[in-house]
Design goal:
about 425 residues, five-stranded parallel sheet, about 20% strand, alpha/beta, monooxygenase activity, FAD/NAD(P)-binding domain, about 25% helix
Amino acid sequence: MSSEQVEALVVGGGQAGLAMSEHLSECGVPHLVLERNRIAERWRSQRWDSLVANGPAWHDRFPGLEFPDVAPGEFASKDQVANYFEAYAGKIAAPVRTGVEVTSVRRHEGRPGFRVETSDGDLDARFVIAATGPFQRPVIPPIVPAGAGPVQLHSSGYRNPGQLPEGAVLVVGAGSSGVQIAEELRRAGREVYLSVGPHDRPPRSYRDRDFCWWLGVLGKWDAETPPAGAEHVTIAVSGARGGHTVDFRALAGLGITLVGMTGAYVGGKLSFATDLAKNITAGDENYLALLDEADAYVARNGLDLPEEPSARELGPDPACVTDPVLELDLAAAGVSSIVWATGFAVDYSWLQVDAFDENGRPKHRRGVSVEPGVYFIGLPWLARRGSSFIWGVWHDAKFVADHVAIQRGYQSQSETPDSQRSGARE
């Protein structure tokens, strides 16, 4: 029995998959998008209830469609983002099949393309584009044993304060997710401990411009590689409550106890590193450096943007920073829950081709895999700093689609008789 034939198969129906679909269509490449759940499913079911986008609506979107229900300077809710992508799929007539999971992809022997096994039958595909994104497998460090006492969950499983048992909460991770969850819990009346590691801390806005604009005009979105040693540094920024700059001193002022990076768990006690003050200082330096660059850009270009000297007023370090908690007896402190805002790992177990390094990371250049015919899209730093953001993945997808179209042209030539390739000879 013959399998369905597909020229290009896009695996994943989120922002990366839809961006690929649009550009493949523009390049005239027949294709199919398979999504195991719903379009933009992670925005619907793997985010907390109050989450909003971290960039304003004028920035965090595709060029071809504005948010219909969000003002340009506001921050879309998770459901508005999911609805946006569903509408976009309709706008571009993306050939998406939902509820179909890809279980394996293997290269054909002796002929081009790949054998694709799915929950809805098998396919043959000439090209395969992995558009499943970076948020595939939640990572919880093996520090506190399961069943040791507190309820433990990853930030992707957190929904709202009422979900957690009564008592104090330890939030581990000081990126956007960790700080927003910690603040929400504190505003709900919970006692909160926030474990702070190395981070970048850009201003939400400065001199009447959002940080997304500043990163654009300063060329930072286009950086092709992260600074040495900063490959996995988190970014603390928030669109919550209309958008505001993350300020760890202000979080402490709300009553959140800041602690250093989470260490070992022994006998019901959790230890924390002595790096809290250093991490706060490094975040401040990152913040102030961006203000300096912004001021220099304003002066260099003669822009009439209001000065904002108050943005440089950091205030004194709170007591939890100057005299940090280095060990916490969880039971004695009443900690009933731990929320691990510790990121994700990729999972390409379904993609059974020679496209990965010894650590399971894709080997590629701008999404073009070392395995011919396989592509990646939507990953952090795929081509530049903006690659995993909504607008960035759209531009990356154009490059990948062009590459697919070029390779498709070469392959069509290899399947053309010699007399048609070179013309009749006298």
